[in-house]
Amino acid sequence: MSPGDDDLYEMSGVDEIGAAADAPGAPAPGETAAVTRFLTDMRALGEAPAPTPTPELAALLDGAVPLDAVRRHLRRALVRAVLVAAAIIVAMTVAAANHSLPQPAQRMVSNVVNELTPFHIDPVLPAADPVLPPAPTRRPAPSPKPPTSPAAPRTSPRNSVGVPAPAPVGGDRSSSDDRTSGGDDRTPGGDDRTSGVDAPNQPPPSADDGSYPSTPSAPRESDRREAGDD
Amino acid sequence: MPELTDSVVASAQRGEREALRIVYEVLAPSVHGYLRAKGVADAEAVTSDVFVALLPQLDRVTGGASGLRKLTFAIAHARMVDDYRNRARTPASVSYQADEDTRTVTSAEEDAGANLATARVRAVLDLLPEDQCEVLTLRVIADLTVEQVAAIMGRSPGAVKQLQRRGMVTVRKALAERQVTL
Fold this sequence. Notes:
Chain A is mostly helical.
């Protein structure tokens, strides 16, 4: 190892640099000295006094909080707030879709969803068996025969209080139609109005199926003839 | 000259002014020299930019003084690349006004000597390919290990050793053939 190599090791503290300067082959003493001087000059570049810091850096060195850091904190806080808000909105929407919210909140969330999104949420829970007070009727509707439909009409609250329920108009009406009729029953005189409105739209019931309308109707022509015959 | 130790770095991470000063005084000369060796136009301003970017990230530094040195020169390396790209896009159009430059506080003789040394080093480094020059400046001026240089340059340690060896061979040949007079 040459003296130049010693200088190089001491200067840089890195063995590989000196070894790389020697390879390949054995350098002449002058070459080693030139390489050592070059590395010394190069190393001296990093030993000059520190340059005067700019005003921004001087403020940072004095402990000022950099504006970028403040902005970064604000950005993180904003992202967190948006994420929390999104989670709350999703949770409220899911709860509203499941009708798990209190009624005012349910109505409000449903309205917002129905207005702003293509989805639809019923504002109120579909009433399964609403307990209604008995509606005043002018006269009880006679029901000569029970409906023949296999889907028996639901037990209405009116039945539970002893008021006879009106027979469905037409034995083939579905249960949803029954619910609609029940909804109309809430208004006074709803039975009559329902019968009066629905009857013209219904096909005339046949005498065989036994599903006559519950309201008394005018005697048919054949009945009059039979009466006249009698 | 204060020394950059792990405890100083820990104090700087807590925001202690004295520790921040030591970090700057120890690392800034190396950064400045590295940027000058790489031919950055305004090395002093870029040095300040490096520390403006470094100080807010101090709390994320791991590895003590060694880790801080590595992060510092990673930022300096990125700033140097930015400077090269900026100069490629917008060549300097303003001439240097020596009378208006109040940054120089050293004597003319010192400046001449320093500039001469810098010019000599730059003349040799200009003969090297870019990656070999980068390895030598980071190894000699920044005093980084092979592994740290490899991490900054995105190369393997073996590749860095190979670049360093080739670079030194080129330097020795150039000096032997008197392509550059020292």
